[in-house]
């Protein structure tokens, strides 16, 4: 006897019922991008002090995160947001997905090129002093970067080149970069862990677009600290949040020393709170950039035009 | 009258869960920019790549498929059945697993397009072999033999006599393979590394990357038109019904002989080199860890390196299995109902149009559909988006057309006279269904169930948009792991792939080893 239909009816009804269970008012949902790390003990400590039940939803890279929130505007998938950076916050504000008064800077990081010191010693080639040199023949086929369309790291560098050369002129530099055999990966992890020779992945490329803090964890690498892009990450309450008071508590906690102290070790970013502790080794191994550029551009308005032009060169 | 009411169930199902969200998302982008977007040179580039890679992949599949069909369906040898099941595995594998296998083979941007085509051939090779093979095995051998006796070589006899008779199968296979390659998402996204774009990945980029709804809608419409053309061809020119395990155990098969050597070698090479190497390499890498062979599998309880995942692999497995059960049940109920309704209706212009309407979910970008759900079902009246049910529901919408096409031939094959005589003898409608019809179509229902399960387990486009937070499924977890390969993530990705592969292999083997039952009832044959 063939019984599947009966079981199917029962299973469907039961699952429909359980699927519609309501959520309690103590619940707080935080949405972040995939690279944010908040340890279990920190979450437990926040839950204990606030009396809230915190759920963290990772919703893709920074761009996908922003766009998903814009698409679900008014009935957001979370109460609070952490991890939106200065390249995307304009877009989020223009679309009215954030409660403006709640937007708070939490951390920052400098997007700089890193190189593998051992590789350059072994091949007796001078290390690059600025990324302007990356179009030179001696650095041919040595550099891996992230695609600015899919990665905020890549976008930060694109903004830096626009700031350095000006609208309409940066394309020449990028053409030269392409002609010099730059490799473009979809995301930072791919570039850093798979293709960079200085990381555990032992890839084929001794120069990678990463962060000024990355060498803190890789002994034989260094960063080019000149002409970096400073990326600042924000937290905010989402418009239409079901728990705005809870969201406000969480944002306050993200700025507190308890959380700020944990950030260098867990996410390789600098805490925005100047009182927060930074590991001593960072002073020599992971100093901040000596100069940065591109942050004052109207990134959210120009992004699509830039990416279109960049896509014409690399697409 | 009652039958009309029953028709309403699948119509409402597909109308609410497919056409409504589709219309909403397409409607959002329908502005004056829309025409401009279609004739944008960038769009034409994308269209051109979608087209040529699909054509080339299809052509290679058909070329390699002919000797494959000949060896596996026209000749007879020991172990043939296992081989037939084996070549089906790539077609059934989650695309994310296939992409994982191939994305680690290449290192250079320039050859990505080639690897995309190789991956498409890997997936669709069996479709060509099965479609051509099952028709070939039904062909009469006498004309070919007569031609050979008259001095024509085997190749010439094939070209002048067999090939024209296989025309229908060729067209059907070509249309289907073209469609799968033209709408493929995971493969192009992952193997192309974000630099190569087809319509499907460009839709995702326009929507999620750029939030450019006019462009999304323009591209989605182009893809819909492409799908309609391919479907119309496959419905009109070939048999669009799916034969899961391609019976083909006719009397027309003879043993392999020495003159089959070229075809045998080529097919062996394809199966070993193209199909087995990528699958074995995944297994090898899953167990290749400096911390012990099973280390990667012991990490299933963790959330990955630097807490990447919202859920552990174990929780994702639970989600995937739950989605699979729900979506398979729903698509079986609706699909069998539709097969029964369609199988019992006359073939009219209206029914053919309805057939096309039902097929559309197969050719629509899952990304567009997922976006449609995001914007359609986020109102408080119909808060489907917040529920985990959204993902299995869309998966069942995608599976329904396939379920229907697998079950329908079996229902059409039931002898109407037998049902009538049962009815005259006083059997109720329910009794007839349970005692006569169901046992006769049992095998195709099992096959359809397997198909529906595998679609749900491997589905990636929709889940990547709608499986938020703790609802992550195995393919979305796998994608996260493989795109962030630091720490233990890479090894975990390989282990997840290996498990999904084993699961697929088990399902395919189970279905194809199920004892074949004759569709015709001996009593009817004598009557």
TrEMBL record, chain A:
- What keywords are assigned to this protein? Signal
Give a GO molecular function annotation for the protein.
thiamine pyrophosphate binding
Q: Which PROSITE patterns match?
A: PROKAR_LIPOPROTEIN
What's any one GO cellular component for it?
outer membrane-bounded periplasmic space
Report the record's Gene Ontology biological process terms: thiamine transport
Stored Pfam families:
SBP_bac_6
**Family annotation (PANTHER family):** ABC TRANSPORTER SUBSTRATE-BINDING PROTEIN, THIAMINE-BINDING PERIPLASMIC PROTEIN-RELATED
Q: What is this protein called?
A: Unannotated protein
> What organism does the record attribute this protein to?
freshwater metagenome
UniProtKB/TrEMBL annotation, chain B:
Q: Where in the cell is it found?
A: Cell inner membrane
Q: Which organism is it from?
A: freshwater metagenome
User: Quick check: keyword Signal in the entry?
Assistant: no
Q: Which UniProt keywords apply?
A: Cell inner membrane, Cell membrane, Membrane, Transmembrane, Transmembrane helix, Transport
Q: Which InterPro entries match?
A: MetI-like (IPR000515), MetI-like_sf (IPR035906)
Query: What Pfam families does the entry give?
Result: BPD_transp_1
**Could you confirm whether the keyword Cell membrane appears in this record?**
yes
- List GO BP terms, alphabetically: transmembrane transport
One GO cellular component this record assigns the protein to is:
plasma membrane
| Membrane spanning residue stretches | 5-26, 46-73, 85-106, 112-132, 170-196, 216-235, 263-287, 324-341, 353-375, 387-407, 445-469, 489-513
Q: How does it sit in the membrane?
A: Multi-pass membrane protein
- For this entry, the protein name equals Unannotated protein
ABC transmembrane type-1 domain ranges (all copies): 47-234, 317-511
């Amino acid at each position: 006897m063939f019984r599947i239909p009966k079981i199917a009816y029962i299973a469907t009804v039961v699952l429909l019922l359980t699927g519609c269970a309501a959520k309690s008012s103590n619940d707080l949902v935080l949405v972040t991008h995939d690279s944010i790390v908040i340890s279990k003990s920190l979450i437990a400590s926040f839950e204990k002090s606030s009396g809230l039940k915190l759920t963290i939803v990772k919703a893709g890279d920074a761009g996908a995160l922003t766009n998903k929130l814009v698409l679900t505007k008014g009935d957001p998938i979370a109460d609070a947001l952490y991890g939106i950076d200065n390249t995307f916050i304009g877009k989020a504000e223009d679309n009215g997905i954030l409660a403006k008064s709640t937007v708070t800077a939490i951390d920052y990081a400098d997007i700089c090129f890193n190189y593998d010191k051992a590789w350059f010693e072994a091949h007796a080639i001078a290390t690059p002093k600025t990324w302007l040199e990356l179009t030179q023949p001696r650095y041919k086929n040595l550099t891996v970067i992230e695609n600015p369309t899919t990665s905020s790291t890549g976008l930060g560098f694109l903004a830096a080149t626009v700031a350095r050369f000006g609208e309409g002129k940066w394309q020449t530099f990028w053409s030269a970069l392409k002609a010099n055999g730059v490799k473009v990966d979809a995301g930072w992890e791919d570039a850093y862990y798979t293709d960079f020779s200085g990381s555990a992945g032992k890839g084929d490329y001794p120069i990678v677009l990463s962060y000024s803090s990355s060498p803190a964890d890789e002994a034989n690498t260094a960063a080019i600290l000149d002409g970096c892009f400073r990326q600042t990450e924000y937290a905010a309450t989402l418009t239409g949040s079901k728990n705005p008071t809870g969201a406000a508590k969480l944002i306050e906690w993200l700025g507190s020393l308890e959380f700020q102290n944990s950030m260098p070790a867990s996410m390789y970013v600098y805490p925005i709170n100047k009182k927060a502790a930074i590991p001593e080794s960072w002073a020599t191994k992971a100093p901040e950039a000596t100069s940065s550029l591109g942050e004052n551009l109207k990134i959210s308005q120009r992004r699509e035009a830039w990416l279109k032009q960049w896509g014409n060169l690399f697409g | 009258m009652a039958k009309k009411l029953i028709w309403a169930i699948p119509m409402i199902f597909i109308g609410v869960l497919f056409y409504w969200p589709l219309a909403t998302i397409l409607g959002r982008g329908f502005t004056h920019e829309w025409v401009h977007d279609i004739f944008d040179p960038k769009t034409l580039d994308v269209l051109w790549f979608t087209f040529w890679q699909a054509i080339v992949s299809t052509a290679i599949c058909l070329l390699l498929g002919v000797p494959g069909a000949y060896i596996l369906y026209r000749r007879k040898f020991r172990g043939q059945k296992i081989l037939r099941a084996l070549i089906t595995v790539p077609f059934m594998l989650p695309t994310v697993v296939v992409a994982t296998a191939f994305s680690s083979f290449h290192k250079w941007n320039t050859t990505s397009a080639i690897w995309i085509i190789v991956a498409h051939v890997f997936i669709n090779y069996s479709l060509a072999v099965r479609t051509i093979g099952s028709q070939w095995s039904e062909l009469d051998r006498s004309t070919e033999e007569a031609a050979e006796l008259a001095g024509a070589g085997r190749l010439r006899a094939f070209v002048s006599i067999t090939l024209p008779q296989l025309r229908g199968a060729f067209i059907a296979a070509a249309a289907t393979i073209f469609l799968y390659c033209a709408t493929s998402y995971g493969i192009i996204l992952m193997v192309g590394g974000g630099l190569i774009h087809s319509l499907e990945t460009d839709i995702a980029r326009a929507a999620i990357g750029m939030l450019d709804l006019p462009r999304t809608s323009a591209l989605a419409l182009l893809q819909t038109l492409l799908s309609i053309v391919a479907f119309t061809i496959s419905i009109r020119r070939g048999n669009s019904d799916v034969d899961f395990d391609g019976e083909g155990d006719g009397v027309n098969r003879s043993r392999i002989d020495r003159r089959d050597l070229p075809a045998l070698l080529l097919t062996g090479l394809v199966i070993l080199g193209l199909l087995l190497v990528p699958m074995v390499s995944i297994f090898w890498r899953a167990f290749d860890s400096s911390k012990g062979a099973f280390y990667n599998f012991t990490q299933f309880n963790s959330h990955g390196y630097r807490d990447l995942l919202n859920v552990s692999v174990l929780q994702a497995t639970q989600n995937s299995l739950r989605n699979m059960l729900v979506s398979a049940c729903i698509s079986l109920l609706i699909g069998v109902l539709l097969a029964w309704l369609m199988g019992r209706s006359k073939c009219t212009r209206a029914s053919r149009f309805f057939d096309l309407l039902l097929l559309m979910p197969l050719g629509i970008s899952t990304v567009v559909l997922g976006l449609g759900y995001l914007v359609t079902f986020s109102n408080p009246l119909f808060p489907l988006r917040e529920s985990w049910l959204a993902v299995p529901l869309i998966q069942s919408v995608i599976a329904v057309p396939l379920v229907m096409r697998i079950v329908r031939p079996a229902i059409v094959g039931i002898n109407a006279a037998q049902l009538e005589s049962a009815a005259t003898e006083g059997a109720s409608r329910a009794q007839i269904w349970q005692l006569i019809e169901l046992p006769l179509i049992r095998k195709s229902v099992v096959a359809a169930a397997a198909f529906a399960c595998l679609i749900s387990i491997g589905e990636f486009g929709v889940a990547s948009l709608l499986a938020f937070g703790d609802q992550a499924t195995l393919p979305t977890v796998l994608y996260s792991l493989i795109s962030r390969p630091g720490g233990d993530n890479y090894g975990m990705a390989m282990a997840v792939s290996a498990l999904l592969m084993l699961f697929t292999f088990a399902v395919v083997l189970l279905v194809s080893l199920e004892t074949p039952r004759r569709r015709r009832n001996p009593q009817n044959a004598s009557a």
